[in-house]
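re: ur msg from earlier - yeah i can do the magnesium ion complex, just paste it... oh wait u already did. ok heres what im feeding in:
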Amino acid sequence: MSDPTGSGPVIALRGVTRLYPGGVTALSGVDLTVDAGEMVAVTGPSGCGKSTLLHLLAGIDSPTSGTVVVAGNDLAHLRDPSRYRREEVGLVFQFHNLLPQLSAAANVELPMFGTGRSSAERSARASELLAEVDLGGCEHRLPTELSGGERQRVAIARALANEPKILLADEPTGSLDSVSTKRFLDLLGRLNGEGTTVVMVTHDAGVAAQAHREVRMRDGAVVDDTTAQVVAPSPAE
Ligand SMILES: Nc1ncnc2c1ncn2[C@@H]1O[C@H](COP(=O)(O)OP(=O)(O)OP(=O)(O)O)[C@@H](O)[C@H]1O
Ligand SMILES: [Mg+2]
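and the outut:
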């Protein structure tokens, strides 16, 4: 059994295959273990299965075969799937998936419903998170009144709403400029320093370099898994 608070595996995929109708093999026999507190970059060419992998971890898609265990939960046998999606993991979607009829703040508040927070607490937390992604003062704007990068930052704030132990981010910097990317990486570093496990999909080598580990995929399989070597400081002379 995984221990989400210890340093053991917090994510374990065993023999995970995801087939789509029409003969598409999005994932093929993936085995992957991520320890609590790791920051992992998932890379690979378009269509290799990266988003599918994150969607399985987020509990919004299911494998055709194999098992996915996250923070001690076997996702095939969740007692309360919506609680899992709302509280155990935060997912930044590749294409934001903000609700167009809701303001930025209401989008960020959405995952907080059903968590026991009062309306005032939800609203204060949404403002705090929007400020964290440099969108203070944009609470009332609709997604259509925000730029692509601003929408992406609202999606990041929403994923953090319930302080997830595991943050899943799918191309989180895809529409961000270099300043926002740096700010996002700083935020990610801080969360990771506080113990949040991070799995992010990225095409950006600079972003991938921030992770301690790079899992490279091709054709639905993991083809390389490299953990950065920590360079020991040279002894004092
Ligand atoms: N709902 C679906 N129905 C059928 N095929 C799908 C579906 N979703 C994804 N696929 C296929 O599964 C494969 C993996 O898709 P996925 O979205 O995981 O790729 P990706 O690595 O995230 O690509 P990108 O870098 O372009 O975002 C692709 O061949 C894709 O066309
Ligand atoms: Mg994708």
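cool cool. Residues 1-5 have pLDDT under 50 and may be disordered. ping me if u need the other ligands too
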